[in-house]
Design a protein that fits this description.
about 250 residues, mainly alpha, about 65% helix, disordered N terminus
């Protein structure tokens, strides 16, 4: 008696994921832009001071995550978890939005326009790379090259742990530094000398709620934005337009 055995392996185990060289190249360029901006700032300024800024920390995270994402896209491997990639997107968007709408805006009440206007040469280049190029690059990658549906509602609360930890770090650092130290507090809205702890706490609550709203917005948009939906989705997907219909997730 002859028996037949049927394979129960999932389709993804049978059909290999396609390599995505365009996606890999784009992510590598975004990571490179972050690295160049960070290196310029480290060479020009004091490394300990430079590394204390949220801008630098968020760009370090972006450089690492995008470098690994580029490698995985090149090899056709599974994408990194949405918790990590979504958090990276949120933090770099915070960097860009706070800079352009708060720190570089005279009407915000926390503007650093005098410092911005004094930037020139290499420092000006790093400023544009870290505050404009990388946030736009990360947003374009999410909109055009990342598969929708990877973000979950509980991710939004988890992402808030980093801004909260940064607040604790900035205030602790400022408390142990002597008064009058340059860049004792990295950002004007965290300056205890100018606003007192009550004022800084009020600022932190305002910005924290804004960041959480942005996180929720990203999760909501991730549910409805067009793009690759996987098997059974209605209409052509982005991946099907650049590879075969049997290809795996774009990311």
């Amino acid at each position: 008696m002859i028996t037949r055995t049927s394979s129960t392996a999932p389709a993804e185990a049978v059909v290999p994921r396609p390599r995505r060289p365009v996606t890999a190249a784009f992510r590598a360029l975004v990571a490179l832009a972050a690295v160049i901006g960070i290196v310029i700032d480290l060479v020009i300024g004091s490394p300990l001071r430079v590394l204390s800024y949220f801008t630098i920390q968020s760009n370090v995270l972006l450089a690492v995550v995008f470098a690994f994402s580029a490698l995985r896209a090149w090899r056709g491997q599974r994408p990194l978890p949405g918790l990590l990639t979504g958090g990276t997107l949120l933090f770099i968007l915070i960097t860009g939005l706070v800079y352009h709408f708060v720190l570089a805006d005279d009407s915000s009440g926390f503007a650093m326009t005098d410092d911005v206007e004094r930037l020139s040469g290499w420092h000006s280049l790093s400023n544009h790379l870290l505050h404009t190029v990388t946030p736009i690059g990360a947003l374009l990658d999410w909109l055009l090259l990342t598969r929708p549906g990877g973000l979950r509602l509980h991710h939004a609360a988890q992402w808030m742990l980093y801004p909260l930890a940064y607040l604790a770090f900035a205030l602790t650092r400022g408390a142990i530094m002597p008064p009058g130290s340059p860049a004792r507090y990295p950002y004007p809205f965290l300056d205890v000398e100018a606003h007192g702890y009550a004022g800084v706490l009020a600022n932190a609550v305002f910005f924290g709620l804004a960041f959480y709203a942005l996180a929720l917005l990203l999760v909501g948009l991730d549910r409805i934005r067009p793009g690759l939906r996987g098997r059974g989705a209605r209409g052509p997907s982005l991946e099907n337009r650049i590879s075969s219909p049997a290809a795996g997730p774009l990311k």
